[in-house]
Structures are given as structure tokens and as C-alpha cells.
Design goal:
Layout (H helix, E strand, L loop, with lengths): L10 E6 L5 H11 L5 E8 L5 H8 L3 E4 L11 H13 L4 E4 L10 H4 L4 E5 L11 H8 L3 E8 L9 E8 L6 H24 L2
Parallel strand pairs: 1-2, 1-4, 2-3, 4-5
Antiparallel strand pairs: 5-6, 6-7
Bound molecules: 5-O-phosphono-beta-D-ribofuranosylamine.
């Protein structure tokens, strides 16, 4: 037995996002700093203009577009099956949704049981769905935050893994609150992935 035999190979991650990809960047930074024993092997986006694709390409990660025939269209079963195949072919062990704007269903859920995570910008079960930070400000909430949870077939309904709280401060706009929440997201998400993959 050589001295390297106990070193676990990096866990292969697949990231799905529709926007800027700052959460994927936080995961990449945790990997680069040696804090997270993982490797992003595939980034997929339903939005061909999403900056997350550029971030991935710049980092040498394979980046592909899921063509759903336009923004805010359905995520058809056959596309979900195609995505599942792409992830499997890339050897993905854990799927991380990072600002992915479509509902993941079958067969993806069956193919990656308890292996799909999402980060949501609220203290779920409060404010599921779109622009949770805006919902919180408009509702007069005094506390908000972010949640990492397993993905099930509902909208932001899967089992909660961990949350981080932030205060809502007098005078907050949707934007200032989202910025505060995102600061927490960028620590929470890599930490939860680390916990799950056990390194
Ligand atoms: C994050 O606030 C995340 O919680 C939500 O969408 C946003 C994505 O931001 N699901 P980014 O693309 O990771 O910068």
C-alpha cells in the first residue's frame, strides 16, 4: 500500500445556473484554495447569455447550453433526460443548482437521488420562488438569509440542510438585502458541499 492510497479523489460536481454564477465562483474559489476536495466537471445553463458560462469557460470547465427554446419556457422531460445523461457522462456525483431558473423533475431526480442541492435566498420555508429577497423587504421581514436544501419536485420544498441568517436593516432595498444574503451564500454553499462530500 503506498502513502497515497488514503487520499480521496476530488468529488465531481455538476453546476446548473441561469445567471451570474457568483455561487459557482465561490465553489471554484473554495476548490482552488484547497478547502474543498472537489472538481467542477460540467456547467450547464438554460440561458446562452449567462455569465456563469463565461466563468466556467475561463476556468477551463466544460460549459454547455441547455436549449429549452427560449427563456422562461418549460424544461421538457426529454431535456431533463438529456441533462441527466450529460451529467452522468461527465461523471458527476453531486449536482449543485446555483441560480438555476427551472424546476428540476423526473428523470433527473431519479437519476441523482438526494444528490441535487439548491441554494435559495431566504430562510425556507419562508419566501419560496422568485426574488425571495424582494418578497422579504415588501413583507416587512426583520430577518432573512439563505438556505441550502436537497431538491425535490416542488419549488424550493426539499429537505433543508443548513441556513444562514442576515438582518433586514431599516432602509434596505431588495438589492441591498440581496447583496447581504449573497455574502452569506458564498460561504454557506461551499461549506455544505464540503460537509456532504466529507472532506
Ligand atoms: C442566488 O441568490 C441564489 O440564492 C438564487 O439565485 C441567485 C443566483 O446568484 N437561487 P448567482 O448566479 O450564483 O450569482
Amino acid at each position: 500500500m503506498n502513502s497515497n492510497s488514503n487520499i480521496k479523489p476530488p468529488t465531481k460536481l455538476g453546476v446548473l445556473g441561469s445567471g451570474s454564477g457568483s455561487n459557482m465562483q465561490a465553489i471554484m474559489d473554495a476548490i482552488d484554495s484547497g478547502d474543498l476536495n472537489a472538481e467542477i466537471v460540467l456547467t450547464l445553463s438554460d440561458n446562452p447569455d449567462a455569465y456563469i458560462l463565461e466563468r466556467a469557460t475561463k476556468a477551463g470547465i466544460t460549459a454547455q447550453v441547455i436549449d429549452c427554446g427560449g427563456f422562461r419556457t418549460k424544461f421538457p422531460d426529454e431535456k431533463q433526460a438529456l441533462v441527466a445523461r450529460q451529467l452522468k457522462d461527465a461523471g458527476v456525483e453531486l449536482v449543485c443548482l446555483a441560480g438555476f431558473m427551472r424546476l428540476v423533475k423526473q428523470p433527473l431526480l431519479d437519476i441523482f437521488p438526494q444528490k441535487i442541492l439548491n441554494i435559495h435566498p431566504s430562510l425556507l420555508p419562508e419566501y419560496p420562488g422568485l426574488m425571495a429577497w424582494k418578497q422579504a423587504v415588501e413583507d416587512g421581514a426583520t430577518e432573512s438569509g439563505c438556505t441550502v436544501h436537497y431538491v425535490d419536485a416542488g419549488m424550493d420544498t426539499g429537505p433543508i440542510i443548513r441556513q444562514a441568517k442576515v438582518p433586514v436593516i431599516l432602509g434596505d432595498t431588495a438589492q441591498t438585502l440581496h447583496t447581504r444574503i449573497q455574502e452569506q451564500e458564498h460561504t454557506l454553499y461551499p461549506n455544505v458541499i464540503k460537509e456532504i462530500i466529507g472532506c
